[in-house]
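ARCHIVE CARD
Drawer: 12
Card no.: 0347
Subject: one protein chain, sequence and derived structure
Cross-reference: see card 0346
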Amino acid sequence: MLGLSILLVVLTILYAGAVWLFTAGWNRLSGGANRRQPPVSVVLAARNEIGSIETCLRSLVRQCYRGRYEIIVADDQSTDGTDRAVARMAEKQSGVKLLRMTSLPPGWAPKKYALSEAIAASDGEIILTTDADCIVPPTWIEGMVRHFEPGVDVVAGPVTLDDPGRRPTLWTRLQTLELFSLFAAAAGGINHGIITASGGNLAYRREAYRRSGGLKAIRGLVSGDDDLLVQRMVSTAGGALRFSIDPGTVVNTRPHARLADFFHQRRRWASKAIHQQPRNLLFLLVTFLLNLFLGTVLIAALISGRGLIVPLVCLATKAAFELFLLTRAARRMNFRGWLSIFPLWELVHIPYIILMGLAGGGGDLRWKGRRFSGQRGIATDARS
């Protein structure tokens, strides 16, 4: 037990140091100064998104960007009429284009192939990506492009949860704070070499994409069309990475109604951990081990009735540093109303990180009616 307590203290110090660096990183975030408005290509892959694709496209065609931009949707063999909805929009809006994926080459994950084909069919100097279930503000393209000053190759941005017309439940509030915590760490970590991003809100230069080998270099992975691609672009192209916290570039998506859907999504995200760059992998490992040992030592101390001081101090330290980061980020992004559930979120966070760390290590993954045999697997019908 003494050995576990010492290890727990060491892990707490390492984790707190990393979170402090993330917090300090927020002081270095700034707005963009680029005034050029180069041609832009917005690309997205869609599979069975009939309930959201039209809303997404309406938000994309209502951009205030004065430069030329196009919207290319790669339909990933939808079975619910998503392709027909996009085709109807394309008939009304000349800037919207539909690509239908009718086959999948060997070795490719479906979404990566769809995005790769959409990028190949585009011609913009800057490529922006979002997801078919997202809604972007009218200033999204303009705000993201503003960060592309000379030497900047990639710009990442935040995604938040919003469900208009419905009163937030405790479940949706926990999801919202969890997602916000990921972007708070992502924004603060960029300047310290911890590189992560979301395909729901991402932009990069076409030349940086080409030099990195593009999605072909990671074509077999089910996930990773965002952060793994960005890591390759930064390491091979040599350009800078920015994170936009401009309110006009915040993308919204809906929270998961079902726990099962949330679990499968986060499990897919966790499954790519082993493919992360060393600094990211080290931080993920420290985070997982800290929560694993913290939960273990706390339970053991509660059962035995002694030795509670060390785990409680470590828990308080972890919570204090996390709250400091979230408060700093919330102040900059006007997010403070959600921090009221932080105590509950903190308690749920420990078993959640343990579960996701274990669940992401193996087994089949599910996405949009498909099942994948591991991170590098062949897609099959999820019902089979």
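Annotation on reverse: The chain is about 45% helix and 15% strand. The longest strand covers residues 40-46.
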